[in-house]
Amino acid sequence: MTEHTWYLLKALILGVVEGFTEFIPVSSTAHLLLIGEWIGFDSGDAKVFEVVIQFGSILAVVWIFRHRIWQLIWGTYRRERTEVAFARNLIIAFLPAAIIGALAIQYIKMLFHHPGIFVVTLILGGLIMLWVERKPQFAKFADSGSRSDGGTDKRRSTQALEEISWKQALAVGCAQCIAMVPGTSRSGATIIGGMLAGIERKTATEFSFFLAVPTMLGATVYDLYRHGSALSGEQTSAILIGFVAAFFSALVLVKALLLFIAKHTYRPFAWYRIALGIVVLIWLSLGG
């Protein structure tokens, strides 16, 4: 196997990793950078590879929800009240990260070169997820309408995308800003942020999916605009392979996740984050 072929195979591996981790709250960026480090994949200082292939996963969401997205576009054009409100909420949730990202992207990317930050963000994020899932209104399966202790919760969570208020959308948008810190997880921050804002688990997950589309499209276009001319032919080939791999693996993951959260909480992912954070800590302690 030639060095070039091996490089492209690594890109394929990372594309699959991206697709399987983008929409679960375990931080796809942490997995891409850590696994990339372990297998010796050099994506360059600008980290364009990690950003661009994430949009492959986002396109999988566009495909899966294509009918709902078309309904949103057509309904907004026709000025249907519920669709206009949904579109408004996506814009409100998108703007905080767009503004902060544009102003601080250089400082944010500096954090990508410090693996130690993943120890903190992975473990702390896992602990926060466990805390949120223990709150009475979330200590139940999605759509079950009953608490784990057999009682009823007087606080009703927002059950549908169309019911989300602009204040809840803004809360999700602010939570997404936190996810700019590597290892935090964009999906994790927006889902948990939505749940804390009073949105039901499955609905918060779906809103996170839709919000990912403009967010990652913006990040991809911005990164390619700034660094695209500096990419080598080998890096471009790697991005294309990783992009396609991320798309197909995300198709599988998103459908599986929606089935999973219909009957389970996010606690398994929280424990996984904590375990991974400990593994990274041990690896760094051993001189990794």
TrEMBL record:
Entry EC no(s): 3.6.1.27
InterPro entries: UppP (IPR003824)
UniProt keyword Hydrolase present: yes
Membrane-spanning ranges: 7-26, 46-65, 86-108, 114-132, 207-225, 237-262, 269-286
Catalytically driven reaction(s): di-trans,octa-cis-undecaprenyl diphosphate + H2O = di-trans,octa-cis-undecaprenyl phosphate + phosphate + H(+)
One Pfam family from the record: BacA
Principal localisation: membrane
Coiled-coil features, chain-numbered ranges: none
UniProt entry keywords in alphabetical sequence: Antibiotic resistance, Cell membrane, Cell shape, Cell wall biogenesis/degradation, Hydrolase, Membrane, Peptidoglycan synthesis, Transmembrane, Transmembrane helix
Membrane topology, as annotated: Multi-pass membrane protein
Domain of life where this protein originates: Bacteria
Acyltransferase keyword on record: no
EC top class named in words: hydrolase
Compartment(s) of residence: Cell membrane
Additional free-text comment from the UniProt record: Bacitracin is thought to be involved in the inhibition of peptidoglycan synthesis by sequestering undecaprenyl diphosphate, thereby reducing the pool of lipid carrier available.
Family in the record: Belongs to the UppP family.
Cross-referenced HAMAP family: Undec_diphosphatase
Function text: Catalyzes the dephosphorylation of undecaprenyl diphosphate (UPP). Confers resistance to bacitracin.
UniProt-recorded name of the protein: Undecaprenyl-diphosphatase
Species assigned in the record: Neopusillimonas maritima
